[in-house]
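Hello,

Our lab assistant flagged a job as stuck in the queue for most of the afternoon. It eventually completed. Since we weren't sure the result was trustworthy after the delay, we are filing this so someone can double-check. Below is the sequence as submitted and the structure that was eventually returned. Let us know if re-running is recommended.
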Amino acid sequence: MQLNTVRDYVNFNSKKYPDINFITCPHTKNKISNKNLKINLDKLNYYLTVKKKQKKGSLICTLTENSLSGIQLMLGIMYSGMIQVPLNLVAGEDQLAYIIQHSETKILFSTKSNLELAKKVIKKSNCEVELVEIDKDDFVLKLENKKTDFVELDKSCNCLLMYTSGTTGKPKGVMLTHDNILNGGKNVLISHKLSISDNALCVLPLYHINGLIVTVIGPLVSHSSLVLSEKFSANNFWKHIEEFNCTWFSIVPTIVSSLLNKYSENEFNNYKISSIRFGRSASAALAPETHKNFEKRFKIKMIETMGLTETCAPILSNPPSPNPIKYGSPGIPYGNEVQILNEKYQEVKRNKIGQICVRGKNVMKEYFKNPQETKKSFYKDWFLTGDLGLMDDDNFVFVKGRIKELIIKGGENISPREIDDILYKHPNILEAAAFGVKCDYYGEKIEAGVVLKIKGKTSEEEILIHCKNLLGKFKSPDKIHFFEELPKGSSGKIQRLKIFELI
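-- returned structure --
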């Protein structure tokens, strides 16, 4: 049996593993088996097709937090041959209104807590959009138990339109097919050796590619399970792992730091979490010092990875146990090809810096209604990530930063990541990001934003001396800016270019 679409996997899991719980909700304690998931998605297919008159390829916006209704609606839209357009709850009204306009959606589903935001952005968009309020827990449960015919689906059908954060302009709509997202899920499966007995803890939002692909589609294609938290909570994190015997989790570096700051070794030892095989970190670079401290404190292998919305999350991952990892690297390619290319799109020698480029079945079809950006983002069938990096002799990639974030001081290219890593070596720094500031003498000078673990304990001078001792004067920041929190995107990634706007 060929499994080419989300519907194929739902049907297969329902027949082959009907009693395995696919989703567990720690807040309601409700569980949805593979058999019941299919029943619920059949109900959604009838509701969307017959009641809401949606057709194959219809674009449907959702404004929901992680919830039983949210995840099933997401899968139900794809299962029914339609295209889900998840709206980022923290994107801001202007961006959301733009997405409604650009996607030309005719219907928006919102949970109660997001209803006022939904009304505002529909009004701001000046579009005619039907707004449907749903209960976050039992919307699907209350639907009529009726069936209708299915539209024909194949792997080339579009199923997800996810907009990038748009920090440098209008957000771009990344159009993804069933083939794209399933291959993204398979890359998670092979890189982490997922099996039917695995149970993922999902704390990242499903309106972000990491949460959706890694901890929903990954379990779907590996016939395994997930525990769906409404959001990350440091208080509940280990508690949920213990209660539901989770075997792995996917988080971001800011959460890694939050857990380190929250739990001492003695506090952590109160939890019984022998079920855990590994944790994974993505969406931003994980500083080696933070990485090592996490593993030392919690005795859990942390696997750094790298992915993009355009590649359905993972393109690189450090290998699973017992293979060694490399700190400071998001790993080696799994399930797709990765090359480092120069400005002429020629592969550079090992350990030389160039642009990280990727090719594979997980790579997006196009930017929706944006042929110019699509053309600019590809060389032949290689997707140009915009990230600088090198590949070593063991195929491990080391990311040096975004091309647009590179600091050019006195004609020398300086990676802000190199400075970040040194800042994180300071024992009282919780968050850090270096950035360039225009300067008449050097062209650009270096400054950095930091968040301290204990406020007032460390001075700017102490941090500058720390950097000069480890980096030398030329690469060290000239100024340190202190913040309560650094600006972040929806994935938890620190947005270093926004720091300059705040100083």
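-- support follow-up --
The delay was a queue issue, not a problem with the job. The result is valid. The longest strand covers residues 429-439. The radius of gyration is 23 Å.
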